[in-house]
Amino acid sequence: MYIYGIHPVEEVLRRAPELIEQIVVAGGLKDAQFEEIRELVRKAGVKVQRVSARELDEWSDGGNHQRIAVRVSEFPYMELADAIDKTAEKQDACILALAQVQDPGNLGAILRTAAALKVDAVMIPRHRSAQITPAVIRASAGMAFRVPLVQVTNLSKALQELKEEGFWVVGTVAEEGQDLWTMDWGLKAAVVMGGEHKGMRPGVEKQCDFRLTIPVDPGVESLNVSVAAAITLYDRMRNLSGS
User: Could you tell me the CATH superfamily of domain 2-72?
Assistant: First the structure.
């Protein structure tokens, strides 16, 4: 898989240099925009290969590659058990569960928000959901490598497992939930965001201990899932900070 663009390449070099198989650049790395990459390449001891701009266009499927790309062997998904162990001593841990978010742009934006707002891990279903692709990594500005991503076969069962480990499942619904800002976030939360088209499936919604609604102006049907995730996660951080 080729990952392209300055910030995504920087994050791969910084977070997962062991996955790098090849770095390619059109021209060279002497430009000022590559200053950080030059230092990261030196530390990682990775060789850089020069290619033509046409070759980079092909590898990035016409995306804005900014003259650089990196080929990685695989994306480093985290096991759910490891995510649980990572948060074992954290009383206000947060795992964000995405219920069939299918748009790559939305997934990328959510991963960027999750990295910014101190989410401990993001969980996605293996099927009927957007997976990690170069487009998703680009949309996340490389932040897909900064927040652990867990891939599960059955989201409902995974949420049940989290509940058994002390998490409370907090689902977001378009209506008839408690107002978002009334939530006390001082708990271990598995926050569920529904998909773009059908929201949460019944089996997933059944796992919810809390149902939250973001109040919006009458006549507005719903918010984009990436926007709703940003609002929800920001409210959690605001609540925990006591402001």
Answer: Ribosomal protein L30/S12 (3.30.1330.30)
